[in-house]
Amino acid sequence: MKIQEITTVVLGELFTGTKASTCKAAQKTGHSLGASATASCKAQGLMRRDSKRKHRVGNKVVKVGGTKLKGEKYGGDLPDYNKG
Fold first, then answer.
1. Contact at 8 Å (CB) between 43 and 71?
2. pLDDT tens-digit profile of 2-49?
3. C-alpha distances out from residue 41 to 9, 11, 57, 66, 71, Å
4. Distances from the Cα of 64 to the Cα of 5, 34, 79, angstroms
5. CA torsion through residues 13, 18, 21, 22, sign
């Protein structure tokens, strides 16, 4: 593989999300994941969210702290506010 081919890889293709097994193993062993991996686990609904914020889920306003809610990208109800 040439250097030019390596540098033309889009960063979004390198990280497509954390595997479910990685999220579950980190919870069992107590090891911490990186910020991106932790966010991915929370978006997939595999880890609890730690926020005092309230979000509109369907027609209700729900406190998301301590819950396992899936993000919209993964087929859940929690909206994605970063769409542009």
1. yes
2. 655 655 555 455 566 788 888 888 888 877 888 888 888 988 999 888
3. 24, 19, 19, 14, 10
4. 42, 21, 12
5. positive
